Amino acid sequence: MSAITADVRTYGHLIGGEEKPVEQLIDRVSPGTGQLVARFADGTVADAQQAIAAARAAFDDGPWRHTTGAERSRILLDLAAAIRERREQLALLDAEEVGKPIHLARGDIDGTIGHFEYAAALAQQLHGDVHTNLGPNYTGLTMREPVGVAGLIVPWNFPALIYSQKVPYALAAGCAVVVKPSEFTSSTAIEMTRLAAEVGVPAGVINVVTGYGMPVGQTLVDSPDVDFVSFTGSTATGQRVATGAAKTTKRVSLELGGKGATIVFEDADLDDAIDGALFAVFFNTGQCCVSGSRLLVQESIADEFLARLTRRAKELHVGPPTDEDARLGALIHEQHAEKVLGLIESAKQEGATLLTGGRRLEGELSDGVFVEPTIIDGVRPDMRVFREEIFGPVLCAIRFRDAEEAIALANDTTYGLANAVWTKNIDTAMRLSHALRSGTVWVNTTIDGGPQLPIGGVKGSGYGREAGQAGLEEFTELKGCLIHTGKRVPYYG
Ligand code: NAD
Q: Which residue's C-alpha comes closest to atom 15 of ligand 1?
């Protein structure tokens, strides 16, 4: 680790519109360079409780929930514009802290801006329904109201982007929030929240408490003053969150892990499918919940497909965050790299064949945490690499005979986040779109889409949806209201 220098950015919590003095700190060493790049306040139970109290006061007594949709929309658009102005700076923060290539981080910030702009549009049209067929003297209303104070727990793989899958939708609905970014990657959450204050989001509406899941995240989950928790992270932690939230009968949304399949039929455009299969697993160095980490390829084309795929994988350039040509970056930390390498080793021991990769990258990259793009063939469904989320640059290939077998293999997982199908046959495409048990299915594209479409999973990948109309509605409660007009027929005549 490098020495602490004066230019290492240091952040305190943002609570009730103020940046709190920092006591205990967490150092963030970039896994892309080995340099100390940031220091975050190590939040306590008391810090989290103070932030919850600030959000509670802002929601219960403040002006935000009473602003019009048009006002919220304007502020969200101003915030989107402010983020666009700082695009390069914000991208660099995420690139350094995650260890991802800068061009990917720029893409994340563009996606972030897209969510703020889309949520701004949704804020304008949030509405309920009127029921006029309930009898001559009755009018029924369904009213969408903000859920209240929301705890937003964010992981490290897309720090700005996942903040933006939660915060603008919560604000559009009229909520106040406490954000708990990952202890590894907290800078962009704080920077964007500072920008929110500059464009007029009232004090206390967005609070940020940095630090570890225990105690900060846990306090959000346990608190009776938090009405809703939106959690993105691993399945194991998500299950703890759901169990904890049950004690206060709190609603939760869980965006958890995945084990997606890239399914390639013999009639696919093979150039597109090869490109897609590579992107599906190596995007964000495989640290992506919707990764296509399992390759299901029809046996008639499997040998040629894997040979071409392997040649392309060997050409992919891995590099540090500021390397403009890098396609893959670092893994988040040493312990994670050990887990990824251990899973590759388990596949070899269980009889699979390594086609390329499988090792730690040294030489110029030895200061960081880099693992080669890896492809494993001859994988069977009982192997650990087929069943467990690897969350690294590791593709596991398996062959299928026909659509029925492809569907069975793809669904043979405890997860259900996203799958991609490559075929030029519309019947096959539609059959798989219906049969695959996942929150998302892509056809002839992968890890694609904008803020219009819902994000979320089934089975072990969680429940609840982010983004789109459904993502806004997660931050609301539906109230029924029945109004009688005119003289009543007495209840007790
Ligand atoms: P993680 O579960 O370790 O941590 C996620 C967040 O939860 C962090 O902010 C962490 O500090 C916090 N946390 C930890 N323990 C907690 C507790 N007991 N109570 C409350 N909060 C707690 O996950 P991670 O390693 O940061 O992220 C990687 C995982 O996230 C992968 O499994 C990935 O698939 C998943 N993910 C899912 C989606 C999705 O949309 N489904 C998106 C991105 C990442």
A: 213
User: pLDDT digit string (tens) for 357-370?
Assistant: 999 999 999 999 99
Tens digits of residue pLDDT in 294-304: 999 999 999 99
**Cα dist from 294 to 60, 160, 246, 457, whole Å:** 47, 27, 34, 17
Which domains, ranges and CATH numbers included, belong to the chain?
3-256+457-479 (3.40.605.10), 261-443 (3.40.309.10)
pLDDT band of residue 7 (cuts 50, 70, 90) is confident
pTM attached to this predicted model: 0.97
Per the CB < 8 A criterion, the answer to whether 202 and 8 are in contact is: no
Residues 6+ apart with CB under 8 A from 220: 48, 52, 151, 153, 178, 180, 226, 229
Contact in structure between 254 and 241 (CB atoms under 8 Å): yes
Contacts of residue 82, defined as CB under 8 A and 6 or more positions apart, other chains included, come to 195, 198, 199
Cβ-based burial of 267 (10 A; exposed 0-12, middle 13-18, buried ≥19): middle
Q: Are strands 36-41 and 129-131 parallel, antiparallel or unpaired?
A: unpaired
Mean pLDDT of 374-398: 98
Of 232, 259, 339, the one to substitute when testing ligand 1's pocket (max ligand atoms within 8 A of C-beta) is 232
Q: Compute the radius of gyration of the chain from its Cα atoms.
A: 24
Give the torsion sign (CA, 181, 182, 187, 192): negative
237 C-alpha to ligand 1 centroid (Å) = 6
The answer for 285, left when phi > 0, alpha when psi is -120 to 50, beta otherwise, is left
Reported confidence tier of residue 232, pLDDT bands at 50, 70, 90: very high
